[in-house]
Every structure is written in structure tokens, then in C-alpha cells.
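Question thread 4412

I'm putting together a teaching handout and wanted feedback from people who do this every day. The idea is simple: show students a protein as raw sequence, then show them the C-alpha cells that encode its fold, then repeat with a second protein so they can compare. Below is the first pair exactly as I plan to print it.
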Amino acid sequence: MTLCTTLDSCLYRMVDDPVFQSVTVDVTEAEGIDSTSLGMLAKVSRLATPAMGRVPTLVSTRADITRLIETMGFRDRVYAIVSQPQLESKSPLDEQPALPVNEGDARERVLEAHKILMSLNDHNRQTFRELVECIENQAQH
């Protein structure tokens, strides 16, 4: 959640870059993925897919993580899921410094991430409906 602002900033710069061509998300080192991160991954696809003309690739080597991603409705609609890393970066990868985030910004990004997950299918809509309502109520008080 603390990296939502940083990821958002990188995402918009990436898709606005005139030489942008593809996205590969590698979760092979992840030991778990929370629902906010899943929503952010869905957002990456939502913004990148129109610019690329195809869904991004997601690399997952862990069966439990792959199963979780698939239960969210990601397979083929949101990501092409592969089990072998296919990264052949033509340029060195850079780590982005974490941008500061305040409580209100973090809440808005968590809310957005869950609304994106809810938009994927009825199962997600039922799963996250109460959480989204709770976050929306907190924002009003």
C-alpha cells in the first residue's frame, strides 16, 4: 500500500512514453499478494492494454500465487500468465524511489484498486463490496 503512489506515478509515465511497447510483471519473488496489490496489477493492465493492443504478461512460478491471480479473473482477460520468466531487458532496470503518501491518498488508491477488482467479475464484486463500502464511509467521516 505504501508503494501505490510510486507505482501510479511510474505507470502513467510508462504508458505516456512514446516508445512504450510492452509490460511484463514478474511476481516470482512474491510470497503473497494482498487485494490492494491485485487491484494495482489490474490497473496496470487496464492502462497498458489499450496502448499495447494486447494484455500484458505476468510471470508467476508459484502455484498458490497463480491460483489466487486466476481466481480474481486475471487469466487471459487481464494478463497472459506464464510460468517462465521471459525478461530480456534491452536497458538496465531501475528501482524507483518510494514517493511519500498520506493517509487520504493511500485510502483513495486502496479504494480504486478494489473497485477495479470488483469490475472484473461478479465473484469479486461480492467479495469486496462490503470492504469498499466501509472505505467509502471512512472517507466521508
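The second pair follows. I'd like the answer to focus on this one:
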Amino acid sequence: MGPGALSDLLKGLPKKEDKDLIVGYDSSDDAAVYRISDDKAIIQTLDFFTTMINDPYLYGQIAATNALSDIYAMGGKVISALNIVAFPEKMDMEVLRQILKGGAEKVHEAGGVLAGGHSIHDVTPKYGLSVTGIIHPDKILMNNSCKPGDVLIVTKPLGVSIINSAYMINECSEETFNICVRQMTTLNKYAAEIMNDYPVNSCTDITGFGFLGHLTEMLDNKYSAEIFSENIPMLPEAHHCAGEFIITSGGQLNRNYLQDKVEFKIKDFALEEILYDPQTSGGLLISVPSEYGEELLEKLNKLEIKSAIVGKVTERQYKDVIVL
């Protein structure tokens, strides 16, 4: 669902006060956090979606990697996961076996245990995970606690939905699609392990709301951000495809909701689409004090997938985000 519809829906839900619920849906954070002792809290999240790829094994890996990501965005550690499955009654069960195999392997790579799950029949396959993680209550990374002067780091290139759409209509190369798949199946665990050694002020993972949607949540109507367009990491061919109007409905939902909050100082339609583009299993968006930015970036860039400093947080300006 688009960010506008979801926000309106949540406002009407009944609420119950609980002093141990540290993070609920009020903050639109990546996951819920509940304190179970003075030094331990559990992180709970779930995510599932329909397939965007023909290979069921890779689909399972992508969906699991995406679901596990919220734990890392909050600075936590994965401990267990449950499968969420919807599957057509008459479809070959080998397809489901491959989906579950791919998902289970990613849970194990994350250091967690797959503890069960729930399945139903449906007309189209859907798969994901309900994930539980742990964290010290004093070390939770919120998605809306950035500070002026922070630099913003993105840990995976943008343009995932654009490339997935282009591949479906044979408008991007096999090589680029394979890079995209490799990125979607790479856990944010490795970037988070490096990030957790630094005094990060705020973190989120970039998924359905796109870079600009998740950045706007991080700014929380308190601050603004200046984005350096030349530093935006993007998948090969993504800029070309967006320029050819290979764009997604999700990206247009994000644009419609966010366009009054963003000013583009440059004229680059394709780049705009990439910044609005929903990401499947996207990277982390990290807000860290500027004095740590280059050092953190250098360590992140020892990983296979390269990161980039894409902007900075400022005091509140006339727009939430200004793209330079």
C-alpha cells in the first residue's frame, strides 16, 4: 500500500497503553519492539509479497532477505522466523518446496532458526516471514531520530523495481538483472554489523516507500535533507530504463504522496523516478554524525555491494528534501 493510504488507516485503530511497548506503529518504524527485561527487548516484524521472479528458489531467498532486513535496520540480531505461505491448491508442490528452501537458507545465514509457519490456499503464491530479533533496549535504532549535521549513507544501489519491470519486458540485459538479484538476496546483516560499531543516530531499510519516502519518515517533519544527486548509487541501466518510462505504479504512488515535500534543483526525470522507486530487499539508509561518515563508508565499501554518502541532514527548510 502507498504511504498515504496506510497512514490514514492506522490513525483510526484502537490503542492500548503499555509501558514496555518501546516502538509501536505510532512512529511508522520498521518493526515493533517490546521490552521483556531491563537489558533485553524483542523485535517483531513480518513481510511477504507475491513473486516478481520466475525462479522459486530465488524468490524464497529474496522474500526472506527482505523480511529479515527490519531486524538489522533497528540494530538487532535475528533469533527465529516463521514462514508465511499462500499457495494455489493445484500448483506443483515442488515449486513451494524450492521457495521454502530458499527462505530457510537465508534464515540460517542470518543466524536464526526457522521455527514453523502457517499456510493457506490462494490463487497466487505469496511468501514471507514473521521474524523475531533481540536487542538491548538502550541500543535500538529508530527510523526517525536523525540529527542536523548527520551525513546520509545508502548501502545498496537504487532502481530495483525499475530493473525488475524492464527485465519482464526484455528491456534490460541478463547481466544487469543478475546484479539486481544478487543485491536482493544479500542480507543487510553485513552492513549492519559494521554500522553497529558507530554512534548512528537513525537507520531504516529502503523498501516500498522508496528512498525519498523512507528519508522523509526519517526527517519526521523536524529536519530537512540536502541530497547530492551525483552520489546516488543506482543499478546499471536503471537510469536509462527510467528515462524510457519503464516505471512502476508503486513509484507513482510514492511520487503522488511525496512530491509536495521534495524539490528537485536539477532537471532529471529518470533520477526522480529512481529516487521514488520502491525497493525490494533494499539497502540501509544510515544517518550518522559527519565526523564518522567517511570512516564508516570506507569500511562498508569493503563489502561486495558498495555504499555511498548521498546527502546530509540540515535544520528545517522550506521542503523536507532538496535534491541538488
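Top answer:
Good format. For the second protein you could add a caption like this: The chain has a mean pLDDT of 95. The two ends are 29 Å apart (CA to CA).
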